[in-house]
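Below is how a single chain appears once it has passed through the pipeline. First comes the sequence as given, then the structure the pipeline wrote out for it. We keep one example in the README because the format questions we get most often are answered faster by looking than by reading.
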Amino acid sequence: MRREDLTLLTAGLLLVLTAILLIALEPRQASVAPSPEASAVPTQLLTDPFLQYPTPGAVRVVWFTEFEGRDHRVRWGTPNQPSEANLPNQAIAITTRLARTREDNQSRLDHPNFSDLKQTVARPIWRHEAVVTDLSPGQRVPYQVASTGPDGTVAKSRVFTLAGAPPAGQPLKILLTSDHQNMPMVAANLQKVTETLGQVDAVFFAGDLVNIPDRASEWFDDSRGCGFFPCLQGNTSYALERNGRTTNYRGGEIIQHAPLFPALGNHEVMGRFAAAAPLGEQFNQPVPRQVAVGLYEANADLFNPSGDPVLRRQWMIDNSFNSETYEALFSLPLTQVPNPDRSETTSRYYAITFGDVRLVSLYITQIWRPYSLDATARGRYQEREADLGTPQNWGHGQHIFDPIERGSLQYQWLEQELASDAFRQAKYKVVMLHHPPHTLGDNIVPAFTNPVRRYDRDDEGRLTAVRYEYPRADDYIARDLVPLLEQAGVDLVFYGHSHLWNRFVSPQGTHYLETSNVGNSYGAFWKDKSRPVPPETIEGSAVTYSPTDYVAQGDPNGLEPVVPTIAPLQDDSGHPLPYLASNDITAFSVFDTGMGTISSYYFDTREPNSAVVKFDEFAVGR
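Resulting structure:
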C-alpha cells in the first residue's frame, strides 16, 4: 500500500471504529428468528425438491420449508413405476437453518409475518437434504419428498424423477442460462425451454441467480411471480404485459428432474453486514478483503480480545463481503484450495464430470459500480466528493472478489485441474464463469483488473478527488486466464453478466458463448452504438484516461462476433446482427452432447402465440 493511501486510511480509522463496533458488538435482535407465534406458517413445502451434485449411483435431493419440523425424508422407486404407491426406498434428510435469509421494506412478499416492514428482519427458512443411493447407471426413477410440520401434518411434493451422474457416452441435453435476477421475461423463457426441449438433463447457470442474495423472497416467493425457484420449477405465474396484452407464464418444471450447477456472479455476493440496514444498501457496500484485514489487525485487541479464530473469520466476513447464502443454498463439489498456509476447501469454484462433459466452474466476478462521473456518485471511476475525508465510506472502484491472476490460489487450482486426467480425457471441456472474456456488452469495460487509485489535489495539497484507472494490459482474464484455457484445449467458455446473446471463436478453436438475454437486456455496443467510457481528460484533474484502455465499441479483447448461422435478427437496414439484445425477445441455449452441438433459440414475448425460433447452432469438440 502506498504511503498516502495508508495515511488517508489511518486518518479515517478513528471515525470508522465506532461504526464498526456498533455493527460487530450490537445485540442482533433483528437477526434472530421471530417468536414461535409470529413465525407460525402453514405446513407446506416452500419449494419443490431439486437435484444437486450427482455422482455415479447417487444424487442429492434438496427442499425448503418455513418450519423446522421433523421426519424430513425422500422416498424413491424403480423405473416405469411413477406412482406414490411404488416408492419403497427412503432416506432421512439432514436439516439446517439458513443463517442469513432476511426481508426488508423492499421485499415483494405476500406473507402475514413480513408485511409493512420498517427495517430488515430475519426470515427463518430450513433446508433439507437427503442422498438417494444405489441408482443404476443411466436410469431415471420416481421420487417424492415429505416433511412433518410442528402440528403433525405431513406436507408432500408431487412425484418427480431423478438419476445419478450419467455414464460417458449417454446423450444429454444441458440448458445453458444465466442472469435471471427476478427479471420480467424469465418465467416466459423457462416455460419455452420445457415446451421446446422437453426434459433436460442438467442446468449450467453462469451466475446472477437473483438480485440481493440475502433477500429470501427473491429465491422463494417474490409476489411478482419472478422468484428463482418458482420460475425454475414451473410453479409461478408472472403477468407479462406487452403491447397492451398481458400473458401469464408459469416458468418450467426443470430442476426437479435435472441437477443445477451454478457459478458465482456479482449478485451472489453480499457486502458489509448490518443487522437492520436495508439489504440493497448492504449488498452495495463490500470492501476489499485486504482493507478489512488491515483494519482488524490494527485493532485486534479491540475487536477480538481473546484471539478467537472463529470470531476473527466472522468479523472478516461481516466487514468485507461474503457469499454465505449462496453457499448454504447449494451442494456443490468441494475443491481443495492449494494454500500452503492452511488446509482449506471451497465450493466457490469446482470441477465435476457429467456424462461426456468436464465442467469447470470458476469464481470470477467483481462488484458492479455505476459509470457516472458525477461528484455525488460512488462509481467505478471515482469516489463521492462527500466521502473524500472518510475512507471508510469509499467503494474502492470495481474491486475483484477472488483473485484469478497468474499465481493466485484459484489460478493454481485451475492449472492442476486442466492438467488432470479427468479434464484431459473428457470428450467435451467446458469452463463456466460469470464475467465475460469476450462480449459486445457493457460490463467488459473497464478491464478486469485491480483498480489503480489516483489522487487529485489542489495547489495547497488538499484532496479534491479520488479516481480509479483500469489498465487493459493488466486484464487478468485476457492476459492470464484465456491463454491458459486455450492452451489446455477448452472447447467452450460459457458466461453471462452483460444480458445479451453473442458468441465468438478464437483462432485456437475455443468457442465463447454469452447467452444471458434471458430476462432483460442492457444493449450491445456494435458499430453505431457506443458504451459509456471516461473522457481522456477531466477538467481540473491530473488523471488522464487512455482511450485504448476503455473501448467504446465491439469486443475490447479483439475477437469479431459470429453472426448466428440460421436465423439472425436484422437491423433496420436488413443487415444480420451478430447479437441478440432485447427487452422483448428472450433467448436460451442448449448443449446436445449426443450431437456435439449448441443450439440457441429465441421467443418474441410481444407475440405470445408465436413459435420459438432456432436462430443459431454450432459444433463443439475437437
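The chain has a mean pLDDT of 92.

See the next section for the split statistics.
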